[in-house]
Amino acid sequence: MKLSFERVGAQGWRGLKLLAAGALLGGLQWAGDALVAWSGWPLSGSVVGMLLLLALLALRGGVPRSVDAVTAPLLRHLMLLLIPSVAAVSLYAALLWQHAVAFAVVAVVATTLTLAVTAWVLQRLLAKQRASGT
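== CidA/LrgA family protein ==
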């Protein structure tokens, strides 16, 4: 049986692109896990994989349509992915109460830093947009 690419229609190519985008995301997560295991960094492999994805998208200058098509449903239903971790918190309620003050301080500091960095980046982007006239 000969493999003929002439028979692959637009839907077939779209499916292959989606499959490649999904493989890219999974591969970057795997690469992040492998990098953390090899280096011993005290980070989650998934976070390193996301940083690799960010670097790749920054080098490319945007998000390819196929990656957007793969990630959009995941982002739309993100809360469903968080249900197991929220349920797991109930298992450690006593431990959380034991360290409630430290937990609250870390949550407030992390939220404040996130807001400050987000505001700083937004100001820089808006200033850059005003300077370029767009």
